[in-house]
């Protein structure tokens, strides 16, 4: 059996789980609800505060899906319970961010400000003008939004200017050196 797939998913207090007959795991929390649709080769059971996934056969594809669905269900339970967070830093003179309604405005050294619409289910906070915190229930969506914002001005290797993850280590390059 898959080492990841056979591990049960423990459900925290305040989170309710329902397995539908259409082989879909519905996870509800205080603020968010997430659904994990699954193919019929993997089935889920909710008992004793744990979700246990089992597979129908031992083919390569089914074994791969077993671990995948277990990870997706775990992410749904964690996201609905505590949520996921990514933090970005803006490094550069004049680089700043501000949230106005459902829009994130970024000044990143271009001739115009970048207006990024915040997707549904994502919360964006700007503590200082140079620090952005992205939170949400979906790990995939939080990572995708953070990558999109970072993509507007990725950090460059010489001065380190740009949008970078807070915990990201940049590989810096040496500038030009004087001739002989």
Structure write-up:
The protein is an alpha+beta fold. The chain folds into 2 domains: 79 residues, Ribosomal protein L6 (Outer Surface Protein A, domain 3), CATH 3.90.930.12; 82 residues, Ribosomal protein L6 (Outer Surface Protein A, domain 3, Alpha-Beta Complex). The chain is 22% helix and 37% strand. It contains 3 helices and 13 strands; from the N terminus they run H-E-E-E-E-E-E-H-E-E-E-E-E-E-H-E. The strands form 4 sheets. The chain has a 4-stranded antiparallel beta sheet, covered by helices on one side. It has a 3-stranded antiparallel beta sheet with strand order 1-6-5, covered by helices on one side. A hairpin with a 2-residue loop joins strand 5 and strand 6. The protein is elongated. The mean pLDDT is 87.
Gross morphology is: elongated
Percent of residues in helices comes to 10-25%
Mean pLDDT: 87
Q: CATH H-level name of the largest domain... which superfamily?
A: Ribosomal protein L6
Parts with pLDDT < 50 across at least 5 consecutive residues:
none
Q: How many angstroms does the end-to-end distance come to?
A: 65 Å
Structural class designation: alpha+beta
**Strand line-up in the sheet with most strands:** 11-12-7-13
Instruction: Name the helix and strand elements from N-terminus to C-terminus, one letter apiece.
Output: HEEEEEEHEEEEEEHE
Rg result? 21 Å
Work out the number of β strands.
13
So what's the CATH class of the largest domain? Alpha Beta
């Amino acid at each position: 059996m898959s080492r990841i797939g056979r591990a049960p998913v423990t459900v925290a207090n305040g989170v309710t789980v329902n397995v539908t007959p259409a082989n879909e795991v519905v996870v509800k929390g205080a603020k968010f609800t997430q659904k994990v649709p699954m193919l019929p080769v993997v089935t889920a059971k909710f008992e004793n505060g744990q979700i246990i996934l089992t597979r129908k056969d031992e083919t390569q594809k089914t074994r791969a899906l077993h671990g995948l669905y277990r990870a997706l269900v775990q992410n749904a339970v964690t996201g609905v319970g505590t949520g996921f967070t990514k933090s970005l830093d803006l490094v550069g003179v004049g680089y700043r961010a501000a949230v106005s309604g459902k829009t994130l405005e970024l000044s990143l050294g271009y001739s115009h400000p970048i207006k990024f619409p915040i997707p549904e289910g994502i919360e964006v906070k700007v503590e200082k003008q140079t620090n952005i915190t992205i939170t949400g229930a979906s790990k995939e969506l939080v990572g995708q939004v953070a990558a999109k914002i970072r993509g507007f001005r990725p950090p460059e290797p010489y001065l380190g200017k740009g949008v970078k993850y807070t915990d990201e280590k940049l590989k810096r390059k040496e500038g030009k050196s004087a001739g002989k």
